[in-house]
Amino acid sequence: MAGRRGLRWLLRRDPGLAASRRALRVAVAATAAFMLCRYAFDSPTAGTYAVFGTIGFGVLSQVVGSPRERTRTLLGCFAAGSVLLTVGTLLAGSTWAASAGMLVVGVVVAFLAVGGPRLGGVANGLQLVYILPSFPPYAPDTLPARVIGFAVGVAFLALADRVLWPPRPHETYASRAAAAARAIADLLDALAARHDGVGRLSGVGAADSRRTAAEHAAGRLKLLATPWEERPTGPGARDRGSAHLGAALRGVQGRVDVLLSGDATTGGAAVDLPSDADETLAATATALRRTADALRGRGRLPDVADLDAARLAYTERRLDTISTIGSGDEAVAHARAAVAVGQILAATRVAVQAATVVVDPRRPRPRGPEPGDLAWWVGAPTTTLWWRRVRAHLSLRSVYLQNAVRLGLGLGLARLVAGGLDLSHGLWVLLATLTLMRTSVTSTRATLVPAIAGTAAGALVAAGLLALAGPGPAVYAVLFPVLCVAAVAAGQLFGAVAGQASFTVLVAVLFAQLAPAGPSLAGMRLLDVVVGAVVGIGVGAAVWPAGGHGEVRRDAARALGATADLVAAAAAWLTGSGTREQVARQLEPADHWLLFFEATFLQYRSERGRRQEDDVDWFVVLGVVHRAIRTARSSFDDPDPATLRLWERWPDLVGLLRHDARALTDGYRAVARALADGHAPAGVLAVPSDFLDRALRALADTRGRREHPRETLRLVDAWGRLGWLADDLVALGVALGPASSAPRPLPA
């Protein structure tokens, strides 16, 4: 009975037993590596590096990916760690040299987070590999033993990762995308069949349940809904493709939602579904279903050419409909729904393109993007992708560089203080600084009290244990594996205080096996942790103390400013007064600031925040910027307005289109300025609620519309794109307005 209660308690505290499995796995690897080196090889030096190699990458790091990817990551960590270990050993003879090395290594290694979860997850382990040998004694002759011990520790950890309670695999982002694609395909099938015979949506049927399923599946593609280790935030082609795939699928779901629910202009009533859209929706559903199968490795991706053919066929059917449909409300309702169907097809095309990169990122592709292609990176070599990502974040406005500089300064100063005070176990000073520092001073301060309280409690226990057990290693050798399990699992199961306490006892038992130790060792550990914590909180308070909270508004303003310029260029292209090249030039800065804003937003959400800022929904801003970029890029598929002579044919309509485009551009710029100035932008927004219907009604009543269907269709689609941007502009006013404003759902 007690055993069952204990198991239920454990499952409540550790769902899936992930922390318990990890603790057992790391404990077995660390114990085996340490015992082999310390007692079989009779090398305390090798034993030290074996156990810290295991702890560094088994406890302080998060090695993510598939089993094969985790093994490759650990092998890479051994190669890079051997270099850092050598450098630390050679610089240990001088406090100033070791501190300078710590500063450089701290910045460079922490900056690895720019490469995504796989690299960012092992940064702390690599820091530890330099920290450990950078303290006296200066003994370059022990370098071979150090490397051997480090190799044994990493090898045992890699082996345990594959055979001893291996981590349960997370659902990959590609699997989430596959589920979303299939759910949306099912919804499209239900939508195409949900007619009363004249094209109007009727009844509830299967569409409502499938709509809920599609909304849920698409929502799981948001970065905040994705586990940290599976977020597609790296610079490589696969991660970029995954990010585009998720955004495109959310866009498809959002446009389908418009067809099912209408919008503000219809009072939430269902809109008319064009009877000529059935084939298009069926082709789109088929493409999404095949995409889902390919993402799961069960088939081939659909050909983009097939989607282009479906889009061309739908365009021809729309042209025929324009020539025959009446005027007034009937034409407006048909045009509004047809715009959404066309946008569904365009977003599906982007999703299929992105999926080709996700499924086979190494496949050779054309170097230069053509109109309608995803972006420049599709055919770029991996080195170019990495260099552009690194170069983009070599700015003091980048939270990645800010975090790296803050941590590097903290570790460098901690090494200098430990050397200046001649602390006998200065390693613990830097280890405290490394593990306690966060991306904002508020978050760092929150870790301080539990860390010191836990260390003090652990020091008392360790002092008593060392006094009772004496100098003999036998007791400590027996206790080591048990304490190793406790130290790894305690933080997850009992909280930060228990984690620090058990780790303090563990290191006392470890060092007691390396050299004779007394109760004073525990007091040294407490002193070192306090010194490291003080250094960490001091540097954190002096160097970008606000973290992501201090940058999120500025980065949002910059991203929206670049978006305003992009909207202006896209609007000029849509109205015939600009060129494709102007849109392409504005895409690069928009992508750049989106990259900054996305990184800042994710960090902002991970920090302890000031409650008054929690009313700002920055995720809405992020989604708006994403959609504006996607809308501008998709406009490359449209024919050149100059070839249609729209201005000569309907100068009043084109003038109205340009007026609406300018109003939108001014609105986006006003939001960006308001954010930069630090006040709510709601007062400067003036987008009519009937923005799209007003334009479509004017177009439906225009003379010559039936005689020139291609030109009419061009204007309908242009206003459709502007209408999407207008919806987002209104949503920005709600999201960034006063806290009393009720939130409004935003289409994906």
Quick summary:
The protein has 748 residues and is mostly helical. Helices cover 71% and strands 0% of the residues.
Summary tags:
single chain, 748 residues, mainly alpha, 4 domains, 29 helices, disordered C terminus, Memb_transporter_dom, transmembrane, Putative membrane protein YccC, transmembrane helix
From the alpha carbons, calculate the radius of gyration and give it in angstroms: 30 Å
Termini separation comes to: 50 Å
Please estimate the helix content: over 70%
Extended strand count: 0
Query: Can you tell me the overall shape?
Result: elongated
Instruction: Write the element-wise H/E pattern from the N-terminal end onward.
Output: HHHHHHHHHHHHHHHHHHHHHHHHHHHHH
The helix tally amounts to 29
How many domains in all?
Answer: 4
| Rounded mean pLDDT score | 84
Strand content: under 5%
Spans of at least 5 consecutive residues with low confidence: 196-203, 263-269, 739-748
The biggest beta sheet is recorded as:
none
Structural class: mainly alpha
Description:
Pfam families: FUSC_2. The chain crosses the membrane at residues 23-41, 47-66, 73-90, 96-114, 448-468, 474-494, 501-518, 524-544. It comes from Actinomycetospora cinnamomea. This protein is mainly alpha-helical. The chain folds into four domains: 1-169, no CATH class; 173-377; 395-545, no CATH class; 548-735. It has 29 helices and no strands. Helix 4 (67-91) packs parallel to helix 7 (123-131). It starts with a helix and ends in a 13-residue tail after the last helix. 53% of the residues are buried.
